[in-house]
Amino acid sequence: MMKKQDDRRWRVQAGAIRAAALALFLILGGMIYALGDLPLAHTETVELGGIENLSINYGHHTVILRESETADLVLKEYMNRDNPRYYARISRSGGTVQIQRGRRPLFFWNWKVKVEIYLPRSFQGNLRLSNSSGSLSADVDLLDYRSIDVNVNSGTVFLKNISGGSVSVHVASGEMDIGALGGNSFVSVSSGRLRIGSITGEENRVKVSSGRLRIGALEGHGILELSSGNMAIDRVRGRVEVDISSGGLELGDFSGKGAFNISSGNLTLDLRDLEGDLHFLLSSGRVDVTIPKAIPFNLDMVTRSGTVRVKEGLEEVLKISGNSTVLRPIGPSPERTIFARTTSGDLTINRR
Known about the structure:
Helix content is about 10%, strand content about 65%. The chain has 3 domains: about 1-35; about 35-125, no CATH class; about 130-350, no CATH class. The protein is built from 1 helix and 24 strands. By secondary structure, the protein is mainly beta.
C-alpha cells in the first residue's frame, strides 16, 4: 500500500515538474522571439477588384499598414507559434472584404504576432480600421478614400495623413496620434488621449466626453462639444460653434468668428483676428478672451449675475457685475461685435 502511494506521489510530482518545465520553455521562447524577428508564418493575397468596402479588425497584436506594389491587398502574418488555425479570417461578401484575427492558442500570454497589411493605391472605397488592443500604425498616407472610419477601443494607433470624402475617428480608450485629417471629419474621444496635427474640411465635428484631445490646427467650420476632459487647438481658422458643459477648452491663434455656449467649465480664447462677431452664452464657469489692442469691437452685454471685465494689460478699464445691460464701443470705429449673455460665471476680455 505504501509503495502504491509513493508511486502515485512520484507521478504527481513528476507531472508538476514537466508542466513547470514546459511553462518555462514557452515563456523563454516567447521572450526570445520578443527580442528578435518573428518568422513569417502566412502570406495571402486578396484581390480588391469590384470591392467597395474594406474592413480590418485585427486586435490584440501589432498591425502595420504599408503600400502594396500591386493592385491587390497582401497580408503577411509573423508568429512565434505557427498554426493554420491562428491565421487571419478573410471573408468576401458582395462588395465587402473583412479581415479579422484568427483563433488564439489556449496559452497565449507568450504568443507573439506581427501583421503587415499592404494596401493598394488603386483602392479608394470605404476603409474601416478597428483596434481593440495592441497597436496599429501606418507607414504610408491613407489618402483619397471615399470614407475612412478609425475606431480604437484600447491600445495605441499611429497614423500619418488621412483624407476622404468623410473621415471618422473614435477613441473609446487608449491612445491615438494622427498627422492630418482632410475632408469632412467627425472626431470623438470617450476616454484616453488623441493628438491630431491638423484638420481641414468644410464641416468638422469634434466631441470629447472625457479624456484629452489636442489638435495642431483646425480650418473650416468646426463644431466643438466638450462634456468633460480637456480639448486644446493651437491654431483656428474659420467659424466655430462651441458647447461646453464641463471640462476645459483652449483655442489659440484664432482668426474667425464663432458662438460659444458654456454651461460650466472653462474657455480660453486667444484671438489673432476678428473676422466676424463672437457670441458668448455663459451659464456658469469662466471665459478668458485675449484680443489685440489694434482690433476695435462693440461690446453688447447683458448680465444677470456674474462679472464681465475688460482689461488692457493689468489695468481694468471696464467692470460689470450683477443685473446690467451694456452697449458700447471698445476702440475707434468698430466693425465687429462681441455679444455676451451671462447668467452666472465670469468673462474677461484682455486687450493686449
